[in-house]
Amino acid sequence: MRARAVINLDNLIYNLEVISDKIPKEKIMAVIKANAYGHGYEEIFKECFKFGIRFFGVATIEEAQVIRKINKEAKILILSAVEPNMYYELSKNNIDITITSFEEIEYIINNNIEGNYHIAYDTGMGRLGFNEFEIEEVIKKLKPVGIFSHLTSADNDEYYTRYQYEKFINISKKYDIKYKHLLNSFGSEKYYDFFESFDLYRLGILMYGGELTNIYKPVMSFEARISYIKTLVEDSYIGYSNTYKAKKGDIIATVSAGYADGIFRSLSNKSKVYLRGKYYNIIGNICMDQFMILADNDVKLGDFVEIFGENIKVEEQANLANTISYELLCAVSPRVNRVYVKEEI
Ligand SMILES: *Cc1c(COP(=O)(O)O)cnc(C)c1O
After folding, report:
1. Catalytic residue among 240, 247, 248, 270
2. Whole-model pTM above 0.85?
3. What's the gap in Å between 32 CA and the centre of ligand 1?
4. What DSSP character marks residue 329?
5. Fewer CB within 10 Å, N or C, the chain?
6. What crossing angle do the helices spanning 9-20 and 41-51 adopt, rounded to 10°?
7. Which residues lie below 8 Å from residue 265, measured CB to CB, with a gap of 6+?
8. DSSP letters of 143-183?
9. How is the chain split among helix, strand and coil, in percent rounded to 5?
10. CB 323: neighbour CB atoms within 10 A?
11. Buried b / exposed e across 176-204, counting CB within 10 Å, b at 16+?
């Protein structure tokens, strides 16, 4: 094996236990879209279901259908807009649908499709859904099972979060709807006690321990194998475009993963890897399938170094790469083996 994402299911359970101290299991929607943020959504689904979670959020029809095949009982909501000509098929499989426009409602009425519909209410993200002046008409035409909105800045803008919250509550309180939901991971972590209770809490990154890592444990450890080691006999450039010059006597190790595996090339000459208590700098430009580190005598052929995980936080890596942990997790490509570990008790 050249590269692997070790998925620590005990850490997932730990995170779920921490969350469920505050939020009852039956109010959690586990967001497992995008292959469960790279962790493998079938396994994450099974673990969450075993834990007692019954509601799941996905992004695509395919994701919903795969989960429905595994399990008939779980509730599933597709959080994005989907093609109306799929509504009938989805409803037959008891998959909840997000409604974002009057065109979609017309389609439902014209084709008389009974389904579980969640109205997307845009309280200030500008992505999907109806504005506050449209909701009344929506509800006259369609009896929804849910209404939801999405926070843009629960991690860093309390003022805007309150603004969105007020907008959501002012409209949603007028109607008797089974599932009213607003909070995502950051919203749930920071504002759970502050806001009045919702019927569902849509949790993604927090379950995976990709952010808020002082409270939650990282579930994924991204690792790759040392495939080659040499000691330089003279000063030498390392990698494409000669961005790093190593010195005679330096020990250079090659690691068998690259940007095609999901290691951001922008981390070239910036980041490091972890092995047995030490950190080693990534030197030269990261290649498609490999990269090089400045090693020492403790690095052995066949060792697996950590790219991010328990010892190198994915959120710190994301900062270095000018992005967010979500993107790094989702970028771990399909050719990286997912290896699931769990303590047997
Ligand atoms: C992805 C997504 C979530 C989960 O967001 P986290 O920040 O990972 O908790 C919640 N709600 C919607 C609508 C989403 O698209």
Report:
1. 240
2. yes
3. 9
4. H
5. C
6. 40
7. 259, 285, 286
8. --SEEE---S-TTT-HHHHHHHHHHHHHHHTTS--SEEE--
9. 35, 25, 40
10. 14
11. ebebbbbbbbbbbbbbeeebeebbbbbbb
240 catalytic residue (yes or no): yes
| Spatial separation of the C-alpha atoms in residues 57 and 63, rounded to whole Å | 9
Q: Tokens 């949603």 belong to which residue?
A: 172
31, 156, 182, best to mutate for ligand 1 pocket (most atoms within 8 Å of CB): 31
CA 195 distance to own-chain centroid: 24
Alpha-carbon distance values, 345 to 18, 69, 208, 216 (Å): 20, 29, 22, 22
Q: What is the per-residue pLDDT across 82-131, written as a single tens digit (0 to 9) for each?
A: 999 999 999 999 999 999 999 999 999 999 999 999 999 999 999 999 99
**Rounded Cα gap, residues 203 and 215, in angstroms:** 15
Span from the CA of 189 to the centroid of ligand 1 (angstroms): 13
The pLDDT tens digits for 178-219 are 999 999 999 999 998 777 789 999 999 999 999 998 999 999
Ligand 1 pocket by Cβ (under 6 Å): 31, 33, 79, 150, 184-185, 202-206
